[in-house]
């Protein structure tokens, strides 16, 4: 069984585009550090619908074990601690079983 991991964030008021760009850059570097990531898309909301969340991550993994490696990986945890946690207001996530 594969896993698709989907996360969306709302950031604190006043979080600038420069911060979002840094978050995107840091997250986009993760597939190099974590080869268990099969596919990875991250980025700020395109602004097409009023009220959407600010930022999203969609990550695919071949197995639950690969997802767990990503979830617990020290480089991933560091990006969260250094770049996301300081500005996140809300987070929602789901892991979807894929075939």
How would you concisely characterize the structure shown here?
With 99 residues, the protein is an alpha+beta fold. Helices cover 36% and strands 36% of the residues. The protein has a single domain (2-98), classed as Alpha-Beta Plaits.
How does this model look, in words?
By secondary structure, the chain is of the alpha+beta class. It has a single domain, classed as 2-Layer Sandwich (Alpha-Beta Plaits), CATH 3.30.70.100. Helix content is 36%, strand content 36%. It has 4 helices and 4 strands; from the N terminus they run E-H-H-E-E-H-H-E. It has helices at 17-28, 30-33, 64-72, 74-84, and strands at 2-11, 37-44, 55-61, 88-98. The chain has a 4-stranded antiparallel β-sheet, with helices on one face. The longest helix has 12 residues, at 17-28. It is globular, with a radius of gyration of 13 Å. The protein starts with a strand and ends with a strand.
